[in-house]
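Sample entry copied in:
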Amino acid sequence: MLDREGYRPNVGIVLLNGHNEVFWGKRVGQHSWQFPQGGIQHGESPEQAMYRELHEEVGLLPEHVQIIGRTRDWLRYDVPEEYLRRQHATRVHRTAYRGQKQIWFLLRLVGLDSDIQLRASEHPEFDAWRWVPFWIQLDTVIDFKREVYELALSELARYLSRGLRLQQLAWGTPLDLIQSFYDGSDDQAKSSTKSDKSK
């Protein structure tokens, strides 16, 4: 399902634990890591698609998470030519696929780490996962998605509690609203235990 400009409606999911670390999934059989995401099916709302993708890719049910917020508008990225599938000759009259337009959701895990099941569907997206700092290292993200990841995290950061300390932004320049989160905050960084999970 494409819009008139050739973008497929999609949802992205940023899942937080109690330390404000985010779920980071390793693509099956690849060395690339990313947030859960997936297409919005015909007749689905973005929220319905988010819950479906959350279960298919991460194995979590609605009762395992709390929605904290979402992006206001669609965030778009173009897929480079070398990644695009060749258009079938009978479909040349249709709008050519350009990339994804995404609504991003920020969720809080209220269940347990053990509720995360990467093999909840017949076609798993991830074969390993771990918790990483909210401000992920952008150089680990495939290049054509980096700008969308930056925009999504920058916008979703406003939903985090003002009293919570985030790890210092590792890339770019914080937006004014994000910078305000650091004003007057403790100089001592919060330590957290990192966990790696794989299945």
Observations:
- The first strand starts at residue 7 and ends at 16.
